[in-house]
Structure formats: C-alpha cells, structure tokens
C-alpha cells in the first residue's frame, strides 16, 4: 500500500548527556564483586578479584554479603540518579535527609511509565501494587525479590547499610587509585564530548558503547552515557524515568594516556574486519538489504561455514548484527568509521 507523507516533521530522536564520577565507579564496583555469575567474564582477572577480596576488611565483606543477598547495589545506582553528586559526603547526606516513602520510591526500579502509580503506592506499603510490579518484572532474574525486599525492609537499617558499604568501598578500594581512576573517567568523557558534535545521537551512542544500536522509543527523551572501568568489556544498561542509561566501558586510549598512539579497540577491529574482499562484498550486500545466512551463501557462491566465519568477524567488530535470523548492516557504525579514524589521526 502506498503512503503519502503529508508532514515535514523529522523522526524524533533523543538527547545524549554525559556524566562521569567516582561515585558511579564505586557503586558499579560493589555490583560487580557481588555478581558471581558475571565476574569471571570481566576484563579484570579472577586472580585480581580474589586478591582484592582478601584485602577487604571484615565489616566491608559483611556488607557485600548483604548486597549479594538482596541486590542493594541497585538501590545505590537508583539513588545516585536523583541528582548530580560531587562528593561522597554529599551523597551520604542526601540519603540521610530522604523521607521514608521517598527513599523507598527511589529504590524501587522504574519499569515503565504506566506503572508509576503502582510504584508510588508500593512505596507507601500497598501490597496489591507491589505484587503487580513483581508480576510485570518477572522476566528479570532478581527484580521481583528485590522489589519485595525494598517494599518491606526497615528504612533506617537499609540506609545504614547503603552508607556503610558505599563509604567502606570508597575508602578501601576507590581511594587507593583515586587519581588514576579520576583521570581515566575524565579523559573518556571528554573524548565522547568531542565526538558528540560530529555524530548524530544514535551514532554517538553506538560508537561510545562499542556497537549498541539504541533507537528512540516512547517516553525516553534522554540517553545518559556514564564511563566505567570496572565492568569492561561489558556495557551495563539501566532505566530511570525518561532516561536510558548506558554505563559503558572506557576506551583503551583513556586507560593508557601515555601511549599517545593507542587506537580505540573497536577502531582496529573494524578496519581488520573490512580488510578482506569477501567481507567487503558481504557489507555491500547487506547495505542493500538484510539477508539470512543461506541467502548470503547463495548470492556469494561460497561455502556456508566460510560465510559464517566471515560474518562472525563482522559481528565481533560491531559492523553487522543479526535479528530474527537475518543479518543486517549497522549503518551508523559504517558511517562513523571515517570520523573515528580522523579523530584518532588528529588527536
């Protein structure tokens, strides 16, 4: 069916904002060390994590056991999103001053605009609203239990716990490398700001996160980019009212500033992936339209295992994605490649 476009209005997109703070790094570190299922996949070796654990005080280890049991790292992140905190004492004071209902409301996760009333009522102790939130989030492995915990816990005790674990982690872990971490986060935020004037919002998010394609969605007007070192190479996604959050892994050049010629990891991988005539043919093929593995195999006249191997390289370089069994070209990644190269050469 033909469609006549009678409007000149462009497709709406989101605004990209950037924040960097050691407090985010602190809360994410608490989250990482208590995530036993993921910790072996992080860039930091298991031996390093084990060594770190042995160096921690008994009170901090007790706090971390409570975090692991009740996922209170989520409370820390949600509270940190309520305003821009410059120092740890400022954050601690904010927690102290929050009224009980407001505190619980902020700690209950945002699961969608239409469930905001349930979130308000659950923070007031309404059991049906709490149960509805749990039902709506049952696809998340820990949300239902976390919502139950936040809704029924003693606020004073939870505040004491959050202040204790945040303060102890900051003093025992963050402060030992304060200057180094601060420099890394500041450099990476500045790097992303410099690119923000050269890329559209969607391309910027894809470049900063190393390949995440995030399209505009209803009720989300802002994407917040927060650099982190602790979860490298993973991106961590979050949602707050009207905002999609990406705690993204900092780039290599931010970690190793003394090596002035250190290229971005994905810049290297993209050029390696494109340095092959078969893969370039695939990129051009997918530029025309998305295709299944079999369709690509048929059109290029190559063996399926060979095509699959090349597609795997293109996917690992974040140039190609797969959805519903069809491969598609990530055009923002291709479009921003020349700008990334120019930035690297001119820096």
What does this protein structure show overall?
This protein is an alpha/beta fold. The chain folds into two domains: 239 residues, no CATH class; 84 residues, Arc Repressor Mutant, subunit A, CATH 1.10.10. Helices cover 58% and strands 9% of the residues. It has a four-stranded mixed β-sheet with strand order 1-2-4-3, sandwiched between helices. A two-stranded antiparallel sheet has the order 5-6. The longest helix has 20 residues.
Throw out a few tags for this protein.
347 residues, alpha/beta, Arc Repressor Mutant, subunit A, four-stranded mixed beta sheet, two-stranded antiparallel ribbon, 18 helices, 58% helix, globular
What is the fold's blueprint, element by element?
Blueprint: E1 15-18, H1 22-33, H2 46-55, H3 58-70, H4 73-80, H5 88-97, H6 100-107, H7 116-123, H8 127-136, H9 143-152, H10 155-174, H11 178-196, H12 201-209, E2 222-228, E3 236-240, E4 243-249, H13 252-255, H14 265-274, H15 277-288, H16 293-300, H17 304-316, E5 320-323, E6 326-329, H18 331-346
Parallel strand pairs: 1-2, 2-4
Antiparallel strand pairs: 3-4, 5-6
Helix pairs in contact: 1-4, 1-10, 3-10, 5-10, 6-7, 7-8, 8-9, 12-18, 14-17
